[in-house]
């Protein structure tokens, strides 16, 4: 049951990312791409700060006692948000999300295959490559009439 609930929550989070891209594109066109990205992080920081205040047992100091390389993930968030802000007005929300998904799957296959970043290590096999190929095919099919490719 926990796995099903986790899959549903993750699916909903992915839906939220599509809405975020849909909001960021027009906002970036209006206020500037970097200002739009910063606004997303400011609002997120406010929400997480409130959560840290009201969630019992939070030890924020523990975060900074971890290996520094684990904190470098924070660099990826702004890159991702700025990419969404720039891409969405040009190629649309759907194409942006499928391109992001293709990159996520490709990168995650490498991380799993080589056991990077503490991953348990899952070999790339025919099925995983097939999944990546289907996502790449979706990206191509979504853009056949869009003159993007």
Q: Strands, helices and their partners?
A:
Blueprint: H1 2-31, H2 33-54, H3 60-63, H4 76-91, H5 93-114, H6 126-142
Helix pairs in contact: 1-2, 1-4, 1-5, 2-4, 4-5, 5-6
What composes the largest sheet? Answer: none
Mean pLDDT figure:
91
Given the helix and strand composition, which structural class is it?
mainly alpha
Outline type: globular
- What's the number of helices? 6
Beginning-to-end CA distance, first to last residue: 42 Å
Indicate how many domains the architecture comprises: 1
Helix proportion: over 70%
Low-confidence sequence ranges: none
**Oligomeric grouping of the chains:** single chain
| H-E string | HHHHHH
How much beta, percentage-wise?
under 5%
Write a structural description:
The structure is a single chain. The chain is mainly α. It has one domain. 74% of the residues lie in helices and 0% in strands. It contains 6 helices and no strands. α1 (2-31) packs across α4 (76-91), α1 (2-31) crosses α5 (93-114) and α4 (76-91) runs antiparallel to α5. It is globular and about 50 Å long.
Quick recap of the structure?
With 149 residues, the chain is mainly α. It has helices spanning 2-31, 33-54, 60-63, 76-91, 93-114, 126-142.
């Amino acid at each position: 049951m926990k796995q099903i609930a986790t899959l549903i929550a993750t699916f909903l989070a992915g839906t939220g990312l599509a809405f975020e891209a849909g909001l960021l594109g027009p906002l970036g066109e209006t206020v500037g791409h970097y200002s739009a990205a910063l606004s997303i992080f400011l609002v997120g920081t406010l929400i997480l700060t409130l959560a840290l205040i009201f969630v019992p047992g939070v030890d924020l100091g523990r975060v900074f006692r971890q290996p520094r390389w684990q904190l470098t993930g924070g660099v990826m968030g702004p890159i991702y948000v700025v990419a969404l802000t720039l891409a969405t007005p040009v190629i649309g929300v759907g194409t942006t999300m499928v391109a992001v998904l293709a990159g996520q799957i490709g990168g995650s296959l490498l991380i799993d295959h080589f056991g990077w970043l503490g991953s348990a290590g899952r070999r790339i096999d025919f099925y995983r490559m097939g999944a990546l190929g289907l996502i790449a095919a979706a990206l191509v099919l979504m853009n056949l009439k869009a003159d993007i490719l």
